Amino acid sequence: MAAVLGQEKAAVNKILYEHSDKFLRNDDFEWSVIGSEELQIEFPKDTWLSSKDFEAILSRSCTPWHDDCESVVFVFKKESRLLLDALARLLALCNQLDAAGKRVSLDFSECLSTRSYLDRMDFFEVLGSNIAVLPKRPNARRGALYQGKNDGVIELRTIDPAEPNNEIPRLLERSFVNCVSESYSTLALTVIGEPFKNVLDHSHSSLAGFAGLQAYRQRTRIQVVISDNGLGIVGTLQPILHRRYPDIAARITRSNEHSGIALLKEVFSTGQISQVDEDGRGTGLKMSGDQARKYHARISVRQKDFELCIDHRPERMRYTPYTNLVRIDGTHISFDFKLDGRTIGD
In the predicted model, is pLDDT for residue 41 greater than 60? Predict the structure, then answer.
């Protein structure tokens, strides 16, 4: 294309990447113009997909939010499976696309085992009723059969900011402690309870949020997810930042970082930033991070089009930012604990 246009390849690529809503790149680095009314997104076979894998697959596709895209189909190939943090983002994206008037389908024709697992997690209870499930939606709730009988699983529970169910954080805390030991009770109370409150504070959405827990590998690894579909942490704090916290706003500007990433770092490292003018507010997520550091946890905070991963080590916090992600509204927090003495990055 660059030769045809008589332009440098780097300059042409820059334009293509900047207009990913109009141009699509495949795995062979070939570009085409987006024109299809239906977008198909395939999850590869024979693999477990983490949230990082899920984001990479989304980024290789054109955005499902494009005006010309009327229908979005997520296709699961044989033995394509999702970790909890990935299925939470898929669930949020599907519900948001559905609410925006897109036709959304989940095709499990080649992977019925994953449909069964998602049914076990009550995924379909939280999934919008207008969203098509192929070959068909499960008739019975497998999650209801097992609910409360396995500490290693807390099925996805709806979080309605208008009518919050305070039993949800208690369920998550109790399950976490029962999976490991009573010595983790303070960790569970802070790490899980505070983000739950955060969802209620920052949602501002008619779509309900959700939370869940899954233990893996003989309970040596535990993931907890807490999600909302609203404005998100950054979406609610940025508008009031210069007025209420001018010193922090100035520090973020001087950092020359992505403003949302820099703000999240402030929230988790310093705290004391809140949209509510009350003493003691704005410290919850910092407290969660302080507790998570003791257990070498990874916290991932996904916002509208960027993410900050925080690896908590005894001596420091390591930040890994991701920007230019496909739009998923809200705040999606996942906690990943390895309880066999190793850090998540090992």
Answer: yes
